[in-house]
Specification:
Elements: H1 5-12, H2 16-28, H3 33-53, H4 59-83, E1 90-96, H5 103-114, E2 118-126, H6 128-138, E3 142-146, H7 154-165, E4 173-177, H8 183-189, E5 193-194, H9 198-209
Parallel strand pairs: 1-2, 1-3, 3-4, 4-5
Helix pairs in contact: 1-2, 1-3, 2-4, 3-4, 4-5, 5-9, 6-7
Length: about 210
């Protein structure tokens, strides 16, 4: 049987090719896709997050680990769907209207996916209405708003206001982040949570859907 501890190590070390090979072999040998995800892949990304928090890893290491995770995840996703396995939650993520920055948003999306969430990536320059549609049409129960410019931060408040107007604010948790964003601002606009980095975003999202 394929040694899945090696999958954990491959993800932590950012070895995408190795992670895919081990996953493919493990599935061929009859390993349970849910076990692979819960016992090796998610813990690997949790370890990557821990290393980031303690400054052992930086953004480049985070990105290559996330890429390795994503590659392995693409292989097991069809099997997970076939077994009826459910993600922890569904997160609609995007950079708010007027803002075209996507590196931070992509990093958070990859870390959340690695943490067991289903991701609806709405991209950049996302209108409040698109976030509303993600809740109504796609069943997102968490919305993650990113802004890198102080001039686009008001779009976060507008999005929350539009969720209220649509009558769905109580159906969804809203988390915000980005370089100029603070906990104080999150409190002011009525967001459910704020995170200042991708690793902490995963812990926050888990707490919000808890």
């Amino acid at each position: 049987m394929e040694d899945l501890k090696q999958l954990y190590d491959a993800i932590v070390d950012g070895q995408a090719g190795k992670a895919k090979t081990i996953t493919t072999n493990a599935l061929a040998e009859g390993a349970d896709p849910q076990d692979i995800l819960n016992q090796f892949m998610i813990p690997a990304m949790d370890e990557v997050g821990r290393r980031f928090e303690t400054n052992e890893y930086f953004v480049p290491e985070l990105l290559i680990a996330a890429r390795a995770m994503k590659g392995a995840l693409e292989i097991i996703k069809p099997k997970l769907v076939a077994t009826g396995a459910k993600p922890i939650g569904k997160v609609a993520i995007g950079t708010v209207k007027g803002d075209l920055h996507d590196i931070g948003k992509n990093l958070v999306a990859a870390m959340l996916e690695g943490g067991g969430f289903e991701i609806v990536d709405l991209g950049v320059d996302v209108t409040p209405e698109k976030f509303v549609a993600a809740v109504k049409d796609k069943g997102a129960n968490v919305i993650a708003l990113s802004a890198l410019l102080t001039t686009t931060m008001p779009s976060m408040k507008t999005t929350i206001d539009v969720l209220k107007e649509a009558g769905i604010r109580d159906q969804v948790k809203v988390m915000i982040g980005g370089a100029p964003v603070t906990q104080k601002y999150a409190d002011e606009i009525g967001a459910d949570g704020y995170s200042d980095n991708a690793s902490a975003a995963v812990a926050l999202a888990r707490k919000l859907v808890g």
